[in-house]
Amino acid sequence: MNTFNDIARYAEGDMTADERAAFETVLASDESLQRQLAVYREVHGSLQQHFSADAQRDQLQGTLQTLRGEFFGDTRQPANVVSIKRWLRGAVAVAAVLIAVVFIWQPWKPGLFREYADTTMVAPAERGEGEADLLQKAVTAFNNKEFAEAANLLQQVRQQDTTSSYVNFYLGISLLQTGRIAEARNIFNNLYEGQSAFKFDAAWYQALGYLKEDNKAMSKEWLQKIPADASGYNKAQELLRKL
Amino acid sequence: MVIVREIYTKYAARVKHYIMANNGDADDAADIFQEALIDIYNQAKNKQLQLTCPFEPFLLLICKRKWLNLLKKRGREPVTNDADDVSIGEDVFALAEQMQQSDRRLQVFLQCFEKLGDGCKEIIRKCLGGEELASIAEQLKVTYGYLRKKKSECMAALTKMIHSQLPE
């Protein structure tokens, strides 16, 4: 068995339903496979950005070339001079991106939240009739970081099955990501009170919710609820040290 | 455009001064400045870079690191010492490090990509470039199913090679 072939076929959606289910069963418990899948997605994403055309970047290049001579007393001319019209058209877009870069001033804690809140939703192996399609759409939206859409879809799934801790857990994250913290907190509380596989993951996201609000004390309190034998323990300890 | 000009007005002279005092000339300075701004743009656009530190020391640090790397490649030693870095905040270093790190990873990806066969290179470049798979299949005179299969195989080979080269 060639692992990377399987990973690629899984990620590209080339597997049959049976193969997919089998792959996901292994994936759930195999950390090395999870890491390899993450590398696959990173490579795919990076190269996608690298190879796709970016008109704004080309515009910025043009702008930089024209400013170059003025500010660096340079005699070299760009090989093909960008026409004024093209140059003006892009200017607005370029400025918008740079404004975002230069002036969006984020305090460091949302940074920590973003660093730690990132996760992917693994598609469930077993699916009930009817909800399968909705759930699949929710997984896709979630993994594309369209959390508002994911929350919407997961709420629909939940109407059919209110007890699924899996659905509740990812709904909680989607709500958290879209800033609906109070609703998320409610869900994570219930999960933490229960005995599902998501018990301590719920505690983890509860901590991140407080982190997002800059409530360090509550964040720490929830991190400390994650016991040493839970899978999220190391991560929790790491974050505790940073707080 | 106004913003870009503003950035040049504010910082170009300092970068030029630094590089010219460090075995470089005005052309080098212009190249480095330009590359740094493009890098920041790419990061902002693709990796959702959010500035969590002041822009000025961040830009200057990026330029400086780029220049020191280039000097090293040219086999020359830098002249000035790092004493003036002391005033730079930890957050600035962290963000610059994060940016360099993701650039280094992309370089590894691209080096491995170059080692693939021509067929795979073409397929990956086209498929990830945003074109419709159906139209790529038509151009390459293969079936849609074959193209999908090849894309997975090529991406698998590439990721395998990259995985063996990345530091753990």
Automatic annotation (TrEMBL), chain A:
<keyword id="KW-1133">Transmembrane helix</keyword>
<dbReference type="InterPro" id="IPR011990">
    <property type="entry name" value="TPR-like_helical_dom_sf"/>
</dbReference>
<protein>
    <recommendedName>
        <fullName>Tetratricopeptide repeat protein</fullName>
    </recommendedName>
</protein>
<keyword id="KW-0812">Transmembrane</keyword>
<feature type="transmembrane region" description="Helical">
    <location>
        <begin position="87"/>
        <end position="108"/>
    </location>
</feature>
<dbReference type="Pfam" id="PF14559">
    <property type="entry name" value="TPR_19"/>
</dbReference>
<keyword id="KW-0472">Membrane</keyword>
